[in-house]
Amino acid sequence: MTWNVPDPRTFDSLLDLLDDASTRWAGKRQLALRTDEGLSLPWSAAELKRRSKLVAWRLNALGLQPGDRLLTWSPATPALPAVYYGAMRAGLVVVPLDLRMAPDVLQRLAEKAAAGWLAIGSGYDAPDPEKAGLGHLNMRTVEALSADPPHERADHTDEGAIDDPFPADWEAQVDGWPRPTRDTLFEVIYTSGTTGLPKGVMLTHGQILSTLEAISKILPPREHRTVSLLPASHLFDQAPILFFGMSIGADILYLRSRTPRVIFKALAEHRVTTMVVVPQLLQLFWNGLTREIEHRGRTKSFERALRIARFLPYWARRLLFRGIHEQLGGSLNLLVSAAAYLPPALQEQWERLGIIVLQGYGATEYGPGAATSIKDHPTGTVGRPTAPVEIRLDENTNEILARGPTMFSGYWHDLDATAAVLVDGWYHTGDIGRFDKRGNLVLSGRTKNVIVLPNGLNVFPEDIENALEQVGLAHTVVLETTPGRIEAVVLNPDAPPVISATSPAPSPPGSEDEAAALRSRIDGLVKQANARLGQHQRIDGWRLWPAADFPRTHTLKIKRGPVREWAGGDAALPVKELEA
């Protein structure tokens, strides 16, 4: 069938997108939440539209005025998009807060946004505003803001609901309020960078709609069912999953748990077709699959089938691994990965199962800049530039530059930071890259991380970290500790891809013999990586990070600043020199 997909260029705002979805996909479930109690909030676009009007009325009744900033801080739930759309109707600027942000960062962001109100999530995994130092703010839960009005509730006692007055014509009043345009500021997203205080990226309705235009050229026009596992505060979740998903009639399931067992169960029950993930989650899924195969005593036959699969077309690969596909719901055929380096071996593993893996490249500041495609998805590249975004390389440094209608309006109240990255209309990404013979963009590293050796040669830490990952050290930071000296700060090689309460880091050695065995093992892995690297890239020594995990951003990238400070400070552990 021909999948009916709207053109984002025809919309004047994101509200138009919701109006279109309400008509185009009338009666179709598009949002739901899965908890331990089962499925809840199964909303269509029309229901989301109605809930957004409730939110808008309540925010206005609370005294918020157009242009005011509304902080949102919540786990993923359909009530959160209702707040986003309700804020649009009320003329507010949304400032999403990430659940992983430290209290001091949250306090500074709230102060910088000059926000007096916080829309907060509820439930067992909801954030605690008192512990975060945000208890002084006025707040309502996202569930209360989007709840039915008192006269429409069956028992009139919805927990947490706001019993504010709703005149008979309240909805008509909301419909009569001024609507946003493409130039209207919708949100300020604070990017959780790997160094320094996050900067507030200002995004208008038009910029996000142009981002959806680019996404429409990446994701195929067909039915999509997905489980959202990314932070709801990040554009990587909002654009391809929420906004684009709503526009094409996707069925989006929000999931509170992050344990592989619960995720796989949700994938199967939802019959997921498409997943948008970061590489660490992709590795977590793969490890979960292989553990189950090992538990069943099928590891050798599975590995043999993987070797055979490389010679088969995708339909035959899916037949070969039909048992695994049945466990995943039988429909998963597309994985979209971005936000960090995707190891070629990991992509190849999933594709041997018959699941296409796309790689994307971009940033909150300008959306998706490049991506591979369904027809051409080689490993080791992030694909070709994606219209309407333009990509070129600086002729002197090979820094990747981007421009287009997706471009952000600047950093919130930070003219200097804006001027530093926006020059003559081009955004300076800080990434180094090159185009291969087929026109695919290949990433090399970050300009701010580059190590310039005394002999003038450039070394990109990311290249070395990728080599370490390929030999079994998945979590590392490579630094120049003194001129010309390259060191690696590492985690235990047994650490899971994503360290959490349900997937904890391995316990530290319990004896000197165990510690010596761990040191010897890491030594061997670092030497294997060195054997794959050029002479000027080789590691001189390594240190074991003293905590269970590195400090990370909300997309699970390691924050290099704290690691660099630790390695250069008095508290750093002794360096383990590599023997020749």
For the biggest sheet, the summary is:
5 strands, mixed
Measure the end-to-end span: 63 Å
Please report the total strand number as a whole number.
26
Content-based structural category: alpha/beta
State the CATH architecture of the largest domain: 3-Layer(aba) Sandwich
* Whole-number total of structural domains: 3
Unreliable stretches covering 5 or more consecutive residues? none
Helix content: 25-40%
Overall 3D shape: globular
Structural Rg: 24 Å
Mean pLDDT: 90
- At the fold tier of CATH, the topology name of the largest domain is Rossmann fold
The top level CATH class name of the largest domain: Alpha Beta
Total of helices:
18
Strand order of the largest sheet: 11-12-13-14-15
- Report the sheet-strand fraction: 15-25%
Question: What does this 3D model show about the protein?
Answer:
Helices cover 33% and strands 22% of the residues. The protein has 580 residues and is of the alpha/beta class. It folds into three domains: 9-27 and 35-213, Rossmann fold; 363-448, Luciferase, domain 3, CATH 2.30.38; 451-577, ANL, C-terminal domain (GMP Synthetase, Chain A, domain 3, 2-Layer Sandwich). The strands form seven sheets. Strands 11-12-13-14-15 form a five-stranded mixed β-sheet. Strands 16, 17, 18, 19 and 20 form a five-stranded antiparallel β-sheet that branches. Helix 1 (14-24) runs antiparallel to helix 2 (45-61), helix 7 packs across helix 8 and helix 16 crosses helix 17. The N and C termini lie far apart (63 Å). The mean pLDDT is 90.
